[in-house]
């Protein structure tokens, strides 16, 4: 008896719907990672569809599945039965997949369906919050071996029985426990994909809000430069503040709630099904948890950024020496771990929000500790003097012995979300220095950098001197 023919490499036949929410959130890379384990586990077929049935991703692993996909179109073309192809009379994989996907999306429950070609399809819905986004599908079961069934299929597809036997012989039967394991993995992958879509929507909402805020700020700067009348600038400022307040609400409520749901359900998935999942599935869960953690930090930082003007307290007299002391107390663990030394002498009083001045020094000293020269303990020096060209202003200087900054990046580092290094090298959200600039500019000051790569960095900024009697700017 001759050996069955070897299977060809898996054939990807995806014609993706690029506009759908699933593909937009996951992308080719993640979808391919999800598919990776199924060729060995089941060796049949795998697909992902949007809620309207449009294809997101599909891979056919076995000769039998590839035959059932390709042969109907060839047969209808050769016989002129275009109408039968259009209404699904000769289609197997595509027609069954569409029908089962519609059923699973409609009932929001897993669906099993027997396919025309003898295999079965198992589909699970993909949920994000209370919405069904689409379905994830795999094939299971053995190709038919019954002579009468093979004869019917041969007649339907216009092919010899021997060709069907050849395609079916290459498939290796999977025992029931492997099929159940694959179904569990499919369900877990669908849950992770739904959480990724939910996270992607939150990121888009954040980006849209930030773009609106930056556009409003640009409008304010333009109007302030073009018009001297205060009432015009105040009108734009009020609108900007309303948008900032709206953003603060979105970040603290509408975005926090789905984020908590992603984190809690992902952790629940790990706790309840961790022992049943393979390493790939556990990795997907870890990616989701890490993304939720980073998004929470991002939301917290953005909330602090938005509240500089909308939630800041009225300016009052601030002892900057006390502010530096409080900031170092907040950084005590980081200072001790890095072996850092921070020295400062007499520092002046300014007119500002004390909490924001503590945040300003904390961010700058924290930056000096984070971006230190490897193997060299950080040294930070803080000083202040009267600004030579700006009356009633104090000029502060926070200098370190760290890795330094290339002059061409001096402006870029103050832009929100701008990073000069990867998150793996130096963790963070890229908002810290943008927050520093926002705080300084709130009080009519400015902030800039003096640095060279490998020679440390000095941040200089101005703040208004305190009028202890009036207590106002």
- Proportion of beta-strand residues: 15-25%
- CATH fold-level assignment of the largest domain: Beta-Lactamase
* Number of domains as seen in the coordinates: 3
Number of strands: 13
Q: What order do the strands of the largest sheet run in, or round the barrel if closed? A: 1-3-2-6-5-4
CATH class of the largest domain: Alpha Beta
Task: Write up this protein.
Helices cover 52% and strands 16% of the residues. Mean pLDDT is 76; it is low at 1-14, 79-95 and 468-473. The chain is built from 15 helices and 13 strands. It has 473 residues and is of the alpha+beta class. Helix 8 packs antiparallel against helix 9 and helix 9 (230-254) packs antiparallel against helix 11 (279-310). The strands form three sheets. Strands 1-3-2-6-5-4 form a six-stranded antiparallel sheet, with helices on both faces. A five-stranded mixed sheet has the order 8-10-11-13-12. The termini are far apart. It has three domains: 11-174, Beta-Lactamase (2-Layer Sandwich); 176-311, no CATH class; 314-473, Heat Shock Protein 90 (2-Layer Sandwich), CATH 3.30.565. The longest helix has 51 residues, at 176-226.
What labels would you give this structure?
five-stranded mixed sheet, 473 residues, elongated, 13 strands, disordered N terminus, 15 helices, Heat Shock Protein 90, 3 domains
Describe how the helices and strands are arranged:
Elements: E1 11-12, H1 21-35, H2 38-41, E2 45-50, E3 55-60, H3 63-79, H4 82-86, H5 93-107, E4 111-114, E5 120-128, E6 131-140, H6 147-157, H7 161-169, H8 176-226, H9 230-254, H10 256-273, H11 279-310, E7 316-319, H12 320-330, H13 332-338, E8 341-344, E9 349-352, H14 354-370, E10 379-386, E11 393-400, H15 432-442, E12 447-451, E13 457-464
Parallel strand pairs: 8-10
Antiparallel strand pairs: 1-3, 2-3, 2-6, 4-5, 5-6, 7-9, 10-11, 11-13, 12-13
């Amino acid at each position: 008896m001759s050996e069955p023919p070897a299977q060809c490499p898996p054939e990807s036949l995806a014609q993706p719907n690029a506009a759908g929410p699933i593909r937009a959130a996951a992308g080719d890379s993640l979808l391919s990672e999800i598919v990776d384990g199924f060729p060995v586990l089941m060796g049949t077929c795998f697909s992902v569809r949007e809620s309207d049935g449009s294809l997101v991703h599909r891979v056919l692993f076995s000769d039998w599945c590839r035959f059932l996909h390709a042969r109907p179109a060839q047969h209808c073309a050769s016989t002129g039965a275009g109408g039968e192809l259009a209404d699904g009379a000769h289609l197997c994989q595509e027609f069954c997949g569409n029908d089962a996907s519609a059923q699973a999306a409609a009932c929001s429950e897993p669906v099993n369906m027997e396919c025309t070609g003898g295999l079965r399809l198992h589909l699970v819905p993909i949920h994000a919050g209370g919405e069904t986004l689409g379905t994830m599908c795999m094939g299971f079961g053995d190709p038919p071996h019954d002579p009468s069934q093979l004869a019917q299929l041969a007649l339907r597809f216009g092919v010899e029985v021997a060709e069907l036997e050849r395609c079916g012989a290459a498939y290796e039967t999977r025992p029931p426990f492997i099929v159940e394991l694959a179904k569990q993995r499919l369900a877990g992958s669908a849950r992770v994909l739904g959480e990724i879509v939910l996270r992607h929507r939150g990121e888009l909402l954040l980006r849209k809000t930030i773009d609106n805020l930056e556009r409003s700020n640009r409008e304010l700067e333009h109007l302030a430069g073009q018009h001297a009348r205060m009432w015009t600038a105040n009108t734009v400022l009020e609108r900007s503040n309303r948008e900032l307040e709206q953003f603060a609400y979105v970040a603290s409520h509408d975005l926090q709630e789905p984020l908590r749901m992603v984190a809690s359900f992902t952790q629940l998935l790990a706790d309840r099904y961790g022992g049943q999942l393979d390493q790939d599935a556990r990795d997907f869960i870890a990616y989701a948890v890490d993304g939720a953690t980073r998004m929470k930090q991002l939301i917290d930082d953005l909330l602090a950024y938005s509240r500089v003007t909308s939630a800041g307290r009225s300016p009052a007299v601030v002892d900057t020496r006390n502010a530096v002391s409080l900031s170092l107390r907040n950084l005590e663990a980081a200072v001790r771990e890095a072996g850092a030394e921070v020295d400062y002498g007499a520092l002046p009083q300014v007119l500002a929000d004390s909490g924001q001045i503590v945040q300003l020094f904390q961010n700058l000293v924290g930056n000096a500790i984070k971006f230190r020269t490897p193997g060299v303990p950080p040294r930070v020096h803080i000083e202040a003097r009267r600004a030579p060209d700006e009356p009633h202003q104090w000029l502060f200087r926070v200098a370190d012995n760290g890795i330094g900054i290339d002059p061409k990046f001096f402006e870029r580092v103050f832009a929100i979300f701008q990073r000069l290094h990867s998150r793996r090298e130096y963790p963070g959200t890229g908002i810290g220095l943008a927050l520093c600039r926002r705080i300084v500019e709130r009080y009519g000051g400015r902030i800039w950098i003096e640095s060279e790569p490998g020679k440390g960095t000095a941040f200089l900024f101005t703040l208004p001197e305190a009028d202890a009697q009036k207590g106002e700017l």
